Amino acid sequence: MTFSLDRSATLLKRAEALMPGGVNSPVRAFRAVEGTPPFINKASGAYLYDEDDHRYVDLVGTWGPAILGHAHPEVVSAVCAAAGRGTSFGAPTAAEVDMAEAIREFFPRMEMMRLVSSGTEACMSALRVARGATGRDAFVKFEGCYHGHADSFLVKAGSGAATFGEPNSAGVPADLAQHTLTLPYNDPEALKALFAARGDDIACVILEPVTGNMGVIEPTEAFLDALRTVPKAHGALVIFDEVMTGFRVHRGGAQALYDFPADLTCLGKVVGGGLPVGVYGGKAEYMRHVSPLGAVYQAGTLSGNPLATAAGLATLRLLTEATFDRAAAAADALTEGLRQVIAETGTEAVVVQVGTMLTLFFGGEIPTNFDQVSACDHARFGRFHRLMLEHGVYLPPSGYEAWFLSAEHGPDEINAVIEAARVALPGSAA
Ligand code: KE4
């Protein structure tokens, strides 16, 4: 039976008349891969179900949040119970206190924090705190890293910006972008040289401590060592954007994995259990700059929303060591299986995995920065993606993204992905 997405194609036509590209976030349009994006109408455990009644093993996990698997019964019932008590109050609630205490259990360096509604809000607010606390305008980001779509970050950005070859977005004023200083990832010498030249102007360095938005790339020891010493020597903060790596590369994020003293941390995705939650926080000396205590303003109608905190709190309470280890074991098994099939089929590809996330790159070497990722064969990834979809596996629609595993990906699901790759790897050759 041929693989058809007729209902999704019809929905896409309607959607394109109303929303740019027919989507509410660019990567979902599947413009970097082949074919129509399936419109999803249900998710459960490790699976997605689309409008044309296809079932897929899901390796996007709604871009990270679904570490427990989709529609976990205890998360669903927590959200339903909260909804029955009202969806939003715009007032402090006990759940927000419980949530902040639960987050601090995972991230003890977050002495004080603020809940917001997205990773973008978390990162833009953390940058504002760093600027407010230091009185400096310039900040450092790394090429290929993505910190959400706030203006200052859309300079040499990763994720969809990189996917569509627009790492510098239109609409960002040059006199704002001039304060965004970008460096190659994993280049300690470049970091040292920039600080030697402009250290007194720099408020902070922000990075994905393990990247996910140019595929999964690990930091080198030398890079981490430079990050531990150079910014501090010039009075600049280090912000760990753990929106993706938080609860994913380790239950305590990359700062636990590498024992790194991040001054500020941004969280998102898993922390909301699939509902809109972002968090920024860190040393109390910096967070006390935030209104109403200090002069750094940040606000939000739905910050700490009762449904979102119910989903987040249920997720954090369920994310025990054993649950995390199940998701990490699934990622281990998938990495091992993909490497075997790559060898068997003689494909030029490598797999990089950290914790519960991984990326397959169509290239000969393990990439360490954005240029090396860009040199991979992304056209082949587009063909591979389509073949995997036709064989029941839903991958992120870009070679610049991470694949995510959950506690619900068992041997059946991992074997199904490996068998699909056994066909799609050779099938995707030019
Ligand atoms: P949101 O505003 O999308 O919640 O978070 C922005 C963000 C910040 N920091 C990191 C490290 C992130 O990965 C993200 C968002 N990630 C993308 C996926 N690469 C979200 C998916 C999308 O844009 O549709």
Helix and strand topology:
Layout: H1 6-16, E1 40-44, E2 47-50, E3 55-58, H2 73-84, H3 94-106, E4 112-116, H4 119-134, E5 138-142, H5 159-163, H6 174-177, E6 180-183, H7 188-198, E7 202-207, H8 221-233, E8 237-241, H9 253-257, E9 264-267, E10 278-282, H10 284-287, H11 306-318, H12 321-345, E11 350-354, E12 357-361, H13 370-374, H14 378-390, E13 393-394, E14 403-404, H15 411-427
Parallel strand pairs: 3-13, 5-6, 5-7, 7-8, 8-9
Antiparallel strand pairs: 1-2, 2-3, 4-10, 9-10, 11-12, 12-14
Helix pairs in contact: 2-11, 3-11, 7-8, 12-15, 14-15
The chain binds ligand KE4.
Q: Please, how many domains?
A: 2
CATH class of the largest domain: Alpha Beta
Largest sheet entry: 7 strands, mixed
Q: Let me know the CATH homologous superfamily of the largest domain.
A: Type I PLP-dependent aspartate aminotransferase-like (Major domain)
CATH architecture group name of the largest domain: 3-Layer(aba) Sandwich
Mean pLDDT: 97
As a percent range, the share of helical residues equals 25-40%
Shape: globular
**Unreliable sequence segments:** none
